Design the sequence.
């Protein structure tokens, strides 16, 4: 209950304080390429329930129909503004709305595309016992994940190496989840973003 109250208070305050900045980002996206400022993607959340994840659009309109669900380091669908937003992680800010809606938390395993969740083992599916988050121990460690996904066999590398390692890290979080651990992860995330 403390975690949920904290999530709501922080996300509501952040949306209020950052609203002029969020509008500026949205305007930059619209001026850079045709299409909406927000992207809604299907993700799997708490107890395996699918929800619409909000992000600032960083790719050309209709990119989800032009290529894979995971973005690689060489992806030509990324816009100029999108490259900056991805590098700084500012594209994730609209997920504060997902937190208010109860789909997500500030801290929790990153929500995954349903196509990849279908590949989880029964043990790996235990991460679905908690709300997904904007940040997690695995997302800090794999902050620059898309640069590792290069070459023609990037998806095999993701499925066989990156995804299992991320799930292993986040499973440790799920088994030890606490409010104080969440605070530590939030501070580690801020530190990682500033360096």
Sequence:
């Amino acid at each position: 209950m403390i975690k949920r109250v904290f999530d709501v208070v922080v996300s509501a305050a952040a949306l209020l304080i950052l609203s002029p900045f969020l509008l500026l980002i949205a305007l930059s996206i619209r001026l850079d390429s045709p299409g909406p400022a927000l992207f809604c993607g299907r993700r799997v959340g708490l107890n395996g329930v699918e929800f619409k994840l909000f992000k600032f659009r960083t790719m050309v309109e209709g990119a989800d129909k032009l290529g894979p669900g995971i973005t690689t380091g060489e992806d030509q669908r990324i816009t100029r503004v999108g490259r900056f937003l991805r590098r700084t992680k500012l594209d994730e800010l609209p997920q504060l709305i997902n937190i208010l809606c109860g789909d997500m938390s500030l801290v929790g395993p990153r929500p995954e595309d349903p196509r990849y969740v279908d590949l989880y083992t029964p043990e790996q599916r235990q991460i679905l016992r908690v709300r997904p988050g904007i940040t997690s121990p695995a997302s800090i460690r794999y902050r620059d994940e898309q640069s590792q996904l290069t070459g023609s066999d990037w998806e095999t590398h993701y499925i066989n190496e990156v995804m299992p390692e991320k799930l292993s890290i986040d499973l440790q979080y799920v088994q030890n989840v606490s409010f104080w651990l969440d605070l530590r992860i939030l501070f580690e995330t801020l530190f990682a973003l500033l360096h």
About this structure: The two ends are 32 Å apart (CA to CA). Residues 2-194 form one domain. DSSP finds nine helices and four strands in the chain.
